[in-house]
């Protein structure tokens, strides 16, 4: 394995090719990390466990499952290399680096502000109110569960009906003769509501009783023999089934409201932007 690599991604790739993909399991429980623990010193500059944890957290997901010893060594090597390179940099740091650092800090601190809002505990009354607002007026709509056999001609459809009248199993005939994508699944279409199917098909389904098989139905796709399996009334989901979704909606709404509020309260002067042509965004050379 290479020992000196400037970037972690090539290191991780080499490690993945040369070592087992899964680290050996151990019964030992690791001690809680102390982020201030110094793991290396480069010309007087400390590299800590905290630096390594943050570096690991920013890795692409495909690298995070590498063996821990490979990750530890790779991240440490990278931080040592970066520190040594930064210390020996000569000349003026490009303006873009300073600007990137400013943007990165701005983004990270703003993110912490949002996280604080998102993590604020919610009252059950807030969740109940959100549930009622979302589902109290839901229209109770009938849903249908149907199967079908799709063939190309009316003659073929009539032959299928004759076969079914003779006692053939609908699902078996669908698997054998249906040209539709649901054929291998016995013609099963699952649950659907009004408006989900083409008009001719929908009209046939809505006039049938559960268990009934239709006469041939012609649509733009061909000729259908439809079996209505069952119907049900769509009802509002139980609160517990949508609790997490509602909590996320509330938190996101609060975060957006907070963003708008603090922006409105801030003393913002955009007048300088009026004199700048939007094309400047692509002029990266000016920050070199």
Features:
alpha+beta; elongated; four-stranded antiparallel sheet; 288 residues; two-stranded antiparallel sheet; 14% strand
Structure description:
This protein is an alpha+beta fold and 288 residues long. 48% of the residues lie in helices and 14% in strands. It has 11 helices and 6 strands. The strands form 2 sheets. It has a 4-stranded antiparallel beta sheet with strand order 4-3-6-5, sandwiched between helices. The longest helix has 27 residues, at 239-265. The chain starts with 7 loop residues before the first helix and ends in a 14-residue tail after the last helix. The model is unreliable at 1-27 (pLDDT under 50).
Sequence-ordered SSE layout with sheet pairings:
Layout: H1 8-18, E1 38-42, E2 45-48, H2 49-57, H3 61-64, H4 68-87, H5 95-118, H6 124-135, E3 142-151, H7 154-165, H8 170-177, E4 188-193, H9 199-206, E5 217-219, E6 222-233, H10 239-265, H11 271-274
Antiparallel strand pairs: 1-2, 3-4, 3-6, 5-6
Helix pairs in contact: 1-4, 2-4, 6-10
Largest beta-sheet characterization? 4 strands, antiparallel
Poorly predicted spans: 1-27
Rounded to the nearest angstrom, the radius of gyration is 32 Å
Measured by DSSP, the beta-strand proportion falls in: 5-15%
Tally of helical runs: 11
Identify the strand order in the major beta sheet: 4-3-6-5
**Total beta-strand segments:** 6
Residue share in helix: 40-55%
Brief overview, please?
By secondary structure, this protein is an alpha+beta fold. It has helices at about 10-20, 50-55, 60-65, 70-85, 95-120, 125-135, 155-165, 170-175, 200-205, 240-265, 270-275; strands spanning about 40, 45-50, 140-150, 190-195, 215-220, 220-235.
